[in-house]
Amino acid sequence: MIKIGCAAYSYLEYLQDGRMKYEDFIEEAYRIGLDGVELTLYWLLSKDPSYLRKIKRLSTFRGLPISGAGISTNFCNPDVSERNRVIESVKEGLDLARELGAPCLRVFAGYVPKGHTQTEATKWTIESLRSCISYAEDKGVVIAMENHGGITAKADNVIRIVKGVDSSWFGLNLDLGNYKESTYDEIAKTVPYAVHIHGKISVAEGVKLDYQRIKKILETGGYNGFLSIEYEEKEDARIAVPEFAKYLLNLFR
């Protein structure tokens, strides 16, 4: 059964300005009646294990598994020293995810830099991700690359990267709102590689996603994990997220 969660990123403004901490986000998810939480790691007050364990304990007591953790990365850099720096940030992210009990870590591939080609950028990304795999396996955390524009704007190149990395410790964080063209066909192509899914309301302003159609695609593709709300609309998240969550919870039950 598909589970409905929510990414901390949905409450971006609240977390950025301090009106909300991760503990508050977990309590909000509990109040809404969600199945789990996804911890985008940009606003950690501390990386100390004792702090992370407090977050993990609260989510456990609220019956909300941490479906994943998320960091921002860009492997599309011709400078190998910069790519190595990103690799180290992934390893740190894997450490944090393990401490939190998150089964996967969301990463981005990146954008083609000026003067270079998508083929080059894809090669750098595959090589960099491959170098993280043994560390991911050691930590017991799957690396989940998101289709986040750039070299992952199209399903075919997403699949090319997944097959290039070629590891059972690597999969896809499938963002339903990030395929701007042939959205539903692209989603269907990449569902088999998904270990986690982001659910947006819209593909672009005024173009809402058809979740009745998406439900059929996910069922056909055999997906049985979390659909984590990633809210990016204009209305206040504390009003809109509970409404969207109620819709998804009813749809997928």
Question: Features of this protein?
Answer:
253 residues, alpha/beta, TIM Barrel, 8-stranded parallel β-barrel, two-stranded antiparallel ribbon, 9 helices, 46% helix, globular
Description:
The protein is an alpha/beta fold. It has one domain (3-251): TIM Barrel (Alpha-Beta Barrel), CATH 3.20.20. Helix content is 46%, strand content 18%. It contains nine helices and ten strands. It has helices at residues 12-16, 22-32, 49-61, 80-100, 118-139, 155-165, 183-190, 211-220, 237-251, and strands at residues 3-7, 36-40, 66-70, 104-107, 142-146, 170-175, 194-199, 202-204, 207-208, 226-229. The strands form two sheets. Strands 1-2-3-4-5-6-7-10 form an eight-stranded parallel beta barrel, surrounded by five helices. α6 links the parallel β5 (142-146) and β6 (170-175).
